[in-house]
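#lab-general

N.A. 3:47 PM
ok so I finally got the sequence cleaned up, no stray characters, all 382 residues accounted for. can someone with queue access submit it? mine expired

B.Y. 3:52 PM
send it over

N.A. 3:53 PM
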Amino acid sequence: MQDLTTTHSKPPITRMGKFAIYKTGLVMDKNATYEEWYEFINKALDLNCCTQWVIGDGLNLGESNWGEMYSQALDETGSSYQTLRDDKWVSSKVKLSRRRDNLSFAHHREVAPLEPNEQDELLDLAEQGDGDGKPWSEKRLRQEIRRRKSPKIAARPAGDCATSVICGDMLSVVPELEPFDLVVADPPYNVTEWDWDKFGTPSEFLDSTRLWLETVQGVLKPEYNLFWFCSPKFSADIEMVLRELCLPIKSRIVWHRRNMSMGSDARDKFIDTWEMVFHCGTKPLNFPEEWHDDRFDVQIHSVPQTNYTDTKLHVTQKPLELIKRLVEYGSLPGERVLDPFAGSGTTGEACSGTRNCTLVELEDEYVNIIERRLGITRQLQE
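B.Y. 4:20 PM
back already:
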């Protein structure tokens, strides 16, 4: 945690009691009380008068100085912590002394995952620009960061990335795993007659969903992406669960199934042809530089069938090309990917040779399918 109680080299823009507000941050008097902090943070949020830096620094100060009382106070403000989490995280990663007045908060967001010396070097380059008297845009800075990562990725030894499968309940398996850069989760929907998909009442199903999400949340790296499949029937309720858990929703992806409608019949409603994929995250997506409609939030892919190249091995199997897209855009080569409801192992195939993938599957039948499909042997749950 950065020390924000030290003095600043420049005069503050303004003062609010024992708080000095700067363009790129906040300094608090060492003698400030919890009550004074509480009053300040409420004013800052209610009036919407402070920068992301000030809000982020204020939240970090509250957490480091008053712990549980800080959490209670944040609940009382009525603000959605989801909207504040990124401010808090970036402010904790980029020290006040390292911030540049002439660069945006978004510039600093790009360098936040890096080591301090790399942050300084890249922020210096962004300030200097390309000799045209203008600082780099956030996109230009992001390109430079990716360019520097690319040689490391290309140099990764062949076979260094591996896929493993664990047979067990994700609630007990996942908490024992190391943190992940990306999670692709296709949990039960509670809408079919399959035994493994039945979770009782909507309330009981949502309680299970909350527990699954909390479990996954515990193994996310600070910089992560999460893709969560669900039925349109429960999408509104699951979105509220995501909000309660402060998982920042970045996209609502519609997977349009261009098959499966022929032969279906419904007299009291339109036939559904889509499923929801919530995208939550704190890191940029790994889009290619060239523009393509892969970027759009409506993704059109056929459901796997037994007579397709994408062979159907599970009754609710997702298209390999869709999962590949989520893996490639949601992570970088060499990063760690988790699928806590692995089914037939499609995420493992999508990651093959490029990412380190961990699959967790409860049903022994499907673990056998994964072993045959990917040519791997299960890890035993300890």
